[in-house]
Design goal:
With about 750 residues, this protein is an alpha/beta fold. About 60% of the residues lie in helices and about 10% in strands. It has an eight-stranded mixed β-sheet, sandwiched between helices. It has a three-stranded mixed β-sheet with strand order 1-2-10, with no helix packed on it. Strand 1 and strand 2 form a beta hairpin. It is extended, with a radius of gyration of 39 Å. It starts with a strand and ends with a helix.
Length: about 750
């Protein structure tokens, strides 16, 4: 095999193939190499995802372990016998090269133990079809997740497949790579990478600190290593150390001026602009980006990041014309990128932050808002047309923009028209649309009323959302008969209930209607979100609910839970300003009684014991303990009452304030009881002293009268018993004196 090396700062090589055998002089097509250490949490999933590829393509798996102390090696042995034990030496390339030197394949694929492929069909087709003979390297997408939800991620085109040629080894102590052999194939297949999520923040910081140390060592050896400057800037972003990010970026850019390398210039500049934006140096961001694109007119994919930050920077300083200029420039680059007209090679040399579909939608949204501020409603409508999608993220942006324009123009027909045009979509999407519409409606009462009028005017009166807006409209008009008619429609409606229809229930309660038939149609999981929605949108929520609860109580279990949720919401609203007056305490006690009743109704009696109740959810534990406390109070069992109140307090912090009031009441009553007891004992002591004196003076009749009065209050007191005995006899005075209590 012959290789011609083309000198460049990015160390790119071109390859020419020999005709020696099907694998051009190699015994197999593919070697897969990995370095691992303590990867037991993720390695099995990683290797399992490679099985289809290894079964379809003649290949081998080489695993280099750098000192695992968990079950990593045992897991690896399930997939390969080729395991190398490597003594770690602070050099990732050295570890990678250990496996590479033992590779027998024509191609070498390397990946990490905490990533796994969603699908390898494209890679399989690449090798089995012979397409691989046209290329010297290949890149797949590494999808780096930023949280465990799986919704937020950054895609990076990782150059992880290279032809194996003589003396072509990994370089760099950290963020290691092989020299790229052109041409390069870009796969759409991607590997999930949860490495930034699986590890704790402390572990991630430790890894970054290690990487920084190794990168700084590389710079000591080679101060002109522009890749190291770029990687250092990315590492310091992890610590949000923007000053240090700027330091390495400016140093790298200065070195690039003397030792030009266009690719690393673009990459480092991206980090620099991002750091300036995060540091709120908005004017400087604009100046630098505009200078860069003016002096270097060759459009690059990375310009999307530049224009994204510039658009947002201009928006922050309210320069809406300038913001729109960069937003439109972003869309031009995005269009060229999607059409495949730009050089993809740049994707291999930077972590792109803003080139996804959702980023484009954010750019469109900001364009729309800027046009709104400029009162250019025609352009806003064009943007809205481009945001016309059922994707939740895009849908939210589009509706928010429509809502803002409707509020600006005081015309809500466009929002209603948007809904009308979407009424034929699947039910699940329709609920999402309704929820998004409700979310973007302003809180201001008049605007919501105007929106209700627009929706109520829609022709489809079999649509529940339209009917709810009719209900809102009639309620505002004060037409009781029309309100009752709309509520009757919902009683007959057989659709699925959600938070969208919270107003139906609120108005039904406001009209003092028995809503049990509504409640029986709704999933209990929806109760709290529905009630939260009522409370959010109705200032008179507390008054309406309190009046309603005075009028209705529910024996039905579902109705009882509805009542509990209503009371709980009100108590949570007022917890900081809990008045602790008689009415408030009665309201809380009734909530506690209902909670206790509900818990007794849904759990078996064997679960409701002090030693087992701890396994119940906190709200149910609260109900159990409050039930126990109230029962103890009725029996005047102060000790049990106090103990269970304290357990209830620990179980449900949301009820901290009212329970604390009960504890304070108890302490006050106990204090008053102690004070009365002390005062009584003090008076009793004085009376006893008087009785002693009377007896010592022989005034037994008078002593007996006083003793009788004291005995009515303290019949079992030992002194009183003795006095009664003495005053009913004619004793010898000396003997009597000797028997007096001391």
């Amino acid at each position: 095999m012959k290789a011609r090396i083309k000198k460049s700062a990015s160390d790119t090589r071109e390859i020419h193939l020999s005709s020696d055998g099907p694998y051009h002089g190699h015994p197999i097509r593919l070697s897969i190499g990995m370095i691992v250490k303590n990867e037991e949490k993720t390695l099995d999933r990683c290797l399992s995802s490679l099985k289809p590829l290894m079964e379809a393509v003649e290949s081998e798996l080489i695993i280099t372990d750098t000192g695992s102390t968990d079950s990593t090696v045992e897991i690896a042995k399930k997939y390969t016998d080729h395991i190398i034990h490597f003594e770690w030496c602070d050099d990732f390339s050295a570890a990678r090269n250990t496996g590479l030197k033992e590779a027998r394949g024509e191609w070498f694929l390397f990946l990490d133990g905490d990533e796994w492929f969603e699908n390898t069909d494209e890679l399989i087709e690449f090798f089995t079809s012979g397409e691989c003979d046209k290329y010297g390297s290949a890149s797949y997408i590494q999808r780096n997740y930023t949280d465990s939800s799986g919704k937020n991620y950054i895609d990076f085109h990782a150059l992880r497949l290279n032809r194996v040629i003589e003396n072509c080894l990994f370089i760099n102590q950290v963020h290691e790579a092989m020299p790229r052999i052109t041409p390069t194939k870009f796969f759409k297949d991607y590997a999930h990478h949860y490495g930034y999520v699986c590890y704790s923040r402390r572990e991630r910081m430790k890894k970054s600190q290690r990487n920084i140390r190794l990168l700084e060592m590389e710079l000591e050896e080679n101060p002109l290593n522009l890749k190291a400057y770029y990687e250092l800037s990315r590492e310091y972003f992890g610590f949000y150390d923007l000053d240090t990010v700027e330091y390495y970026c400016t140093r790298g850019l200065k070195i690039e001026e003397e030792h030009p390398d266009h690719i690393w210039k673009l990459s480092i500049f991206q980090s620099y602009v991002k750091a300036l934006y995060k540091g709120k140096a908005y004017q400087k961001v604009l100046e630098l980006v505009e200078k860069m694109v003016r002096e270097d007119p060759q459009m690059e994919i990375i310009w999307m990041d530049y224009h994204y930050y510039a658009q947002n920077a201009a928006f922050q300083i309210r320069d809406y014309e300038r913001s729109n200029s960069h937003g439109l420039a972003y869309l031009k680059v995005y269009e060229q990128y999607q059409a495949g007209r730009l050089d993809n090679n740049m994707l291999l040399f930077a972590n792109f932050d803003h080139i996804k579909e959702t980023d484009k939608e954010q750019v469109l949204y900001l364009l729309g808002v800027s046009f709104l501020f400029l009162h250019n409603y025609k352009e806003v409508e064009k943007i809205i047309d481009q945001l016309d999608s059922l994707d939740p993220a895009v849908l939210g942006h589009g509706l928010l923009l429509i809502s803002r324009m409707c509020a600006e123009t005081e015309k809500w027909e466009q929002l209603a028209s948007f809904y009308q045009n979407k009424r034929s979509v699947e039910a699940s999407y329709k609920i999402d649309i309704m929820k998004e519409i409700e979310a973007v409606l302003p809180l201001e009462e008049k605007m919501r009323a105007d929106a209700a009028i627009a929706f109520a005017a829609l022709p489809d009166k079999d649509d529940a959302y339209v009917r709810m807006n009719c209900l809102r409209n009639e309620e505002l008009n004060g037409d009781k008969d029309a309100v009752e008619c709309e509520l009757d429609w919902f009683l007959r409606w057989e659709g699925k209930w959600s938070t969208v229809y919270s107003d139906v229930l609120f108005f039904a309660m406001q009209e003092k209607m028995n809503i049990l038939k509504f409640i029986l149609k709704i999933e209990v999981d929806e109760f709290r979100p529905i009630i939260d929605n009522m409370q959010k949108h109705h200032n008179n929520f507390p008054e309406v609910i309190k009046e309603y609860l005075k009028s209705y109580s529910f024996e039905n279990l579902k109705g009882l839970y509805w009542s509990i949720c209503l009371r709980e919401n009100l108590l949570m609203m007022e917890t900081k300003n809990f008045a602790a007056n008689e009415d408030e305490m009665k309201f809380f006690i009734e909530y506690a009684r209902q909670s206790a009743k509900y818990v007794r109704s849904i759990f078996r009696s064997e679960l409701l014991s002090p030693d087992r109740v701890t396994i119940l959810p906190r709200a149910y534990r609260f109900g159990f303990y409050m039930g126990q406390a109230l029962a103890a109070q009725e029996k005047s069992d102060s000790e049990s009452y106090l103990r269970n109140l304290r357990f209830a307090l620990k179980s449900y912090e949301g009820m901290n304030r009212p329970i604390s009031v009960l504890l304070d009441y108890f302490e006050q009553e106990e204090k008053l009881r102690r004070e009365k007891a002390e005062e009584f004992n003090k008076l009793a002591k004085q009376v006893k002293e008087r009785i002693k004196i009377l007896i010592s003076q022989g005034k037994l009749k008078e002593a007996g009268q006083v003793t009788a009065q004291l005995a009515a209050l303290m019949p079992n007191d030992p002194d009183v018993v003795k006095f009664r005995t003495l005053t009913h006899t004619e004793p010898d005075m000396k003997e009597l004196a000797a028997q007096l209590p001391q």
